[in-house]
Amino acid sequence: MLSIALIGMGSAGSRFLRAILYREKIKGDVKLVAICDRNRERLENFYNTNIKTYQKVNDLLINGAYDIIVIATNENSHFNILKDIKKYSTKYKRILVEKLLVEKFNQVRDILSIYDENEIAVHFVERHSLILKYLLNWMQTNNLTVKRASFFWGKFRLYDHRPTIGVTSEISHPIDLILMISNIKPGTPFEILGGTYVYSDFSISGKQVLDTINVNLKIGNEILVNGSSSFLWEKRRRNVQFYLANSEGIVTYMVVLIFDKPHWDMDICRVYKVNLPYGRKRLINTWKVNSNKIISELFCVHKTSIFIDENVNEIKGLRESFTLAKLSSSAYVQEIVSSLHSHSELNLIDTPIFGEKTFNLNHYKKVDEAVKDYLTGKIRGNDFAKTDENF
Q1: What is the pLDDT of residue 293?
Q2: Does residue 26 sit in helix, strand or coil?
Q3: Cβ pair 243, 253 in contact under 8 A
């Protein structure tokens, strides 16, 4: 039995909660034993359970020993929490971190110096879509390689109640997917060829926060990447596109990935043959993850559940995972997005147009109600994901 502690009970934490409790219910090989959150009202949901509650991370670490520690807080707290875990906790077998690994790249160097590769796995959730399993198997069978990639990754976060470091956090998802599907090793040289970056006062996090990015990259000697990401888009849109070459280096296929449409975890992959006469393309493969492939109790947390399962199975020695973003891969993603952020500071456009914003804890009510329903056996999907396309 693996004991689990969960730090952070906001939007991400509530999804981790459901995935962990589902594993506990179905497999019986894990047990959520402790939760930490600064908000006492959130913790009240657990007062009549066997789960211990803490408002301070150090108290959680000092008063218990855990096999798995999940960090589901904002990026700006990750670095200190990771240092505290190393200081106060010795039993842990793995730490699971909601992306990004930390807030700043100079913090990554410190984490790399005190943690080993397999001690940390970062929750780049789209890695765990079943469509990627189908795609990667097909690419390997046909000996195909990525030559070019593009993406659009956006959602609506204007006046959102959650603190953010900016859209560089959002862009980490498509960057990670491109590195994974292209089989690019951590440490591969990359170059920022150009970009435009828009800062504004859209967030409660400050008067100058990066909300939109358009960028061109070259990774290694061959792969060109161009993409856009925005926190001011009409609704959630998560697309990645690849051009694939055969063993002779000729581009023969185009792959289109669409994530979380219409709801989280409902993904689609389309493969087109493109080297046809008269500039035509032909659809040759389609893989989908729709509601029929998702257990109702895991609605909108299906990929998070796979992330939990792969970590637990690997820790138990049942099977090795080849999709988890371990420490070196996560640090490499952080290096790229941090370089983009640094580049943005030299090439920024500032648009302070949105005015004053306030932080209202009532925004968390739906998450709390979902937690209550889950703990009392009234299983349902995550309210935010089910009803709001912005998340």
Answers
A1: 86
A2: helix
A3: yes
